[in-house]
Write a structure and sequence with these properties.
The protein has 449 residues and is α/β, with parallel strands linked by helices. The protein folds into three domains: 112 residues, Gyrase A, domain 2 (2-Layer Sandwich), CATH 3.30.1360.120; 127 residues, tRNA modification GTPase MnmE domain 2 (Four Helix Bundle (Hemerythrin (Met), subunit A)), CATH 1.20.120; 160 residues, P-loop containing nucleotide triphosphate hydrolases (Rossmann fold, 3-Layer(aba) Sandwich). 46% of the residues lie in helices and 17% in strands. The chain has 15 helices and twelve strands. The strands form two sheets. A six-stranded mixed beta sheet has the order 3-4-5-2-1-6, with helices on one face. Strands 8-9-7-10-11-12 form a six-stranded mixed beta sheet, with helices on both faces. A hairpin with a 2-residue loop joins β8 and β9. α6 runs antiparallel to α14 and α13 packs antiparallel against α14.
Length: 449
């Protein structure tokens, strides 16, 4: 981090203003080389009018903001150049700065420097990008709560509680000769560990709810060809996005649409009809459909009221049984040929053509995911897959400690499992990390952030 980085921080395209950001030890010096004023002697957090110049030629009329360390986002010297929007002008200003000693920043490198310099923790770093990409009001609220440190404090409190238990064990192991120290046995620490486990489980549950709020629910619509999958997608999103015909096999690739119900995003996927086919393209579509069944948060399985249930459909019903699912019988406006007794599950009868039952499907989705409760939950919880996975690992380590207590294992073995849990919680906020993790995490960020 000894060099000075630069990147365009605004969306590339035609606009009133573009912002080019520099950060690093040489930021003020490099900016001064291309500006009509020496910025190194100016006060911090001031704005200056002038021109960007290259070999005596005026490139653009700009406003430059000077922000000196440590009171900046990266805790380094930061310069932001507000130039006129437009691809040619913005790129030319960037070119001039690069020519005078700055290096083009990698995606997310400004935020990465903020983390490495102690300005933010890893949760707050993730929340920065989440705030930019928020697609709903509730997702925005989760991101801003995390960005302001409230969620990080939740994890810090957990770690403090756990370290108290570990410290008590350490004292007994290291100083057994002191008479005024109560001898600590596994049975004496059992209530404290159980109390901690209960709190951790509650945080995991609410964090998983927050993940649903932030990322939405992936809904896969599956079934045989020509049962009305594409028509249902169009009805749910109230838009003619999928092609609808009477020809089986029309949908050969996945088609996606999005709606928001009670502030929760539903990413709805219309899949290719599942059947045996000699058509290579259709076979690939069927394979993708089967993958959607495994990966979706919710499966809407459609049957045709006008046809008998097939052996293939019976197999698919068994496949979706252990997932959150809704069984839908479509085309109830046509002659009834489907034997309901062969469906060992509750179902919703609809007619997409007559707009019957669509509201009932939305109500069932809300019920399955407790959307009413999700909306009123405290939003100060984790919401990324990475952090929730680490919480689960911490919980597994706590369970291992409890198992060792049941086996009457030595207390130092119990302590080891507790320390592993403490380390996992540290990974959540970035107290411990690997370079590979940082590279992977910040590579998802947009350039200039």
């Amino acid at each position: 981090m000894d060099d000075t980085i630069v990147a365009i921080s605004t969306t590339t395209g035609v606009g009133a203003i573009s912002i080019i950001r520099l950060s690093g030890e040489e930021a003020l010096k490099i900016a001064s080389k291309v500006f009509t004023k020496n910025l190194t002697k100016e006060k911090s957090h001031t704005i200056h009018y002038g021109h960007v110049i290259d070999n005596g030629e005026k490139i653009d009329e700009v406003l430059i903001t000077v922000m000196k360390s440590p009171k900046t986002f990266t805790r380094e010297d930061v310069v932001e150049i507000n130039c006129h929007g437009g691809i040619a002008t913005t790129n030319k200003v960037l070119e001039v700065i690069l020519k005078n000693g700055a290096r083009l920043a990698e995606p997310g490198e400004f935020t990465k420097r903020a983390f490495l310099n102690g300005r933010i923790d890893l949760l707050e770093a993730e929340a920065t990008m989440d705030l930019i990409s928020s697609k709903s009001e509730t997702a925005r609220k989760i991101s801003i709560n995390t960005l302001t440190g409230e969620t990080s404090n939740l994890i810090k409190d957990l770690r403090n509680e756990l370290i108290q238990i570990i410290s008590n064990i350490e004292v007994n192991i290291d100083y057994p000769e002191y008479e005024d120290i109560e001898q600590l046995t596994s049975t004496k620490i059992l209530p404290s560990i159980n109390k901690f486990k209960k709190k951790l489980q509650e945080i995991i549950k609410k964090s998983e709810d927050s993940k649903v709020i932030k990322e939405g629910i992936t809904v896969g619509i599956v079934g045989r060809p020509n049962v009305g999958k594409s028509s249902l997608l169009n009805a749910l999103i109230e838009e003619k996005k999928a092609i609808v015909t009477d020809i089986p096999g029309t949908t050969r690739d996945i088609v996606e649409g999005t709606i928001i119900i009670d502030g929760i995003i539903l990413n709805i996927i219309d899949t290719a009809g599942i059947r045996e086919s000699k058509d290579l393209v259709e076979q690939i579509g069927v394979e993708k459909s089967l993958e959607i069944i495994d990966s979706a948060d919710l499966v809407i399985f459609i049957l045709n009221n006008n046809e008998e249930i097939t052996e293939e459909e019976k197999r698919l019903l068994k496949k979706v049984k252990d997932k959150k699912h809704i069984i839908v019988i479509n085309k109830i406006d046509l002659e009834k040929k489907l034997d309901r007794k062969k469906i060992e599950d509750k179902y919703i009868e609809i007619s997409v053509k007559e707009n019957i039952g669509i509201t009932e499907i939305k109500k069932e989705i809300k019920k399955l995911f407790n959307m009413g409760k999700l909306k009123t939950n405290d939003l100060t919880y984790l919401s990324s897959a990475r952090s929730i996975a680490l919480l689960h690992k911490a919980l597994s380590s706590i369970d291992e400690a409890l198992q060792e207590i049941e086996k009457n294992s030595p207390i130092d073995i119990i302590e080891f499992s507790l320390k592993v849990a403490w380390d996992y919680l540290g990974e959540v906020i970035g107290e411990t990390y690997t370079d590979e993790l940082l590279d992977e995490l910040f590579s998802r960020f947009c350039l200039g952030k």
